[in-house]
Amino acid sequence: MKRILGLSLFYLFLSSCTVSHHPKEHAHVYLQHAGREAKKWKLVWEESFSSATLDTSKWSRIPAGGSDWNRHMSTDDVCFGWENGELILKGITNTDRSTDARPFLTGGIWSKGKFAFQYGRIEIRAKLGSAKGAWPAMWMLAELDKYGKYPKNGEIDIMEHLNFDDIIYQTTHSYYTLDLGKKDHPKHFGTAAIKAGDYNVYGISWYPDRIVFQLNGKDTFTYPRVSGVDPSQWPYDQPFYILIDQQLGGSWVGEVAPDQLPVEMRVDWVKVYQ
């Protein structure tokens, strides 16, 4: 009896010290324990980019796709660099179109299949480059596709920057905002003033009932879970993975000016707390 009681107290102690758990079939997913929303954040995962190569246990290079954001993505080394403990993601003119006809190439990384989390705080310290058609972004997508195909699982845009703007956009997208067109109940995006050429810390604090967007540790915009609306308004009750990419061109950012390339985003570190 004493042994059973001792073991129970031991496991209770362990659970009080840990802030997240991992599903048996998805060991790379960090699920925050229920009821921790008002407690102090604890660091659970980080990346300092201190090595001169990408840590493939945490990240993969984003391959090309057919959407505006990934049509120029490349896994080629010319789109990536490491310097002074920073990852450099580049947008460049393609100088060899004999095997790849695309006019531009861009670099990006994601943690898909290697790290995802549900609820917590993420911070990314980076310096953005500016050019006509430049579109650096830090964002999140659903890891396990709980509700079906995009956009039913939602999207969290921690930061997007366009051209030479002195603001960033911080946005949520979902079936509710895109297909049903419900963009003002509640408002689905905010902006924040920045100096793009400076180092800034971009982030969110994500709770079961709201997503609080942040810049340099200060709250900038909140997207709340609301009642009495279509359930698709809140697909943010599942794990999401991280994307960081230097995009170029598209219907939103506009045409690319080749004479202003290369452009780059320098990423210092990524930290996730729960």
Task: Write down how many β-strands occur, each being a DSSP E stretch of 2 or more residues.
Answer: 19
Gross morphology is globular
Distance between the termini: 35 Å
Question: What fraction strand?
Answer: 35-45%
Structure, explained:
By secondary structure, the protein is mainly β. The protein has one domain: Jelly Rolls, CATH 2.60.120.200. Helices cover 7% and strands 41% of the residues. It has two helices and 19 strands. It has helices at residues 2-17, 175-178; strands spanning 20-21, 29-32, 43-47, 60-61, 80-83, 86-93, 104-106, 108-110, 116-118, 120-127, 134-142, 155-160, 167-173, 189-193, 199-207, 210-215, 218-224, 240-248, 263-273. The strands form three sheets. Strands 3, 5, 6, 7, 10, 15, 16, 17 and 19 form a nine-stranded antiparallel sheet that branches. A seven-stranded antiparallel sheet has the order 4-8-18-11-12-13-14. A hairpin with a 2-residue loop joins strand 5 and strand 6 (86-93). It is globular. The two termini are 35 Å apart.
Describe the structure concisely.
By secondary structure, this protein is mostly beta strands.
SSE layout and pairing:
Layout: H1 2-17, E1 20-21, E2 29-32, E3 43-47, E4 60-61, E5 80-83, E6 86-93, E7 104-106, E8 108-110, E9 116-118, E10 120-127, E11 134-142, E12 155-160, E13 167-173, H2 175-178, E14 189-193, E15 199-207, E16 210-215, E17 218-224, E18 240-248, E19 263-273
Parallel strand pairs: 2-9
Antiparallel strand pairs: 1-2, 3-19, 4-8, 5-6, 6-7, 6-19, 8-18, 10-15, 10-19, 11-12, 11-18, 12-13, 13-14, 15-16, 16-17
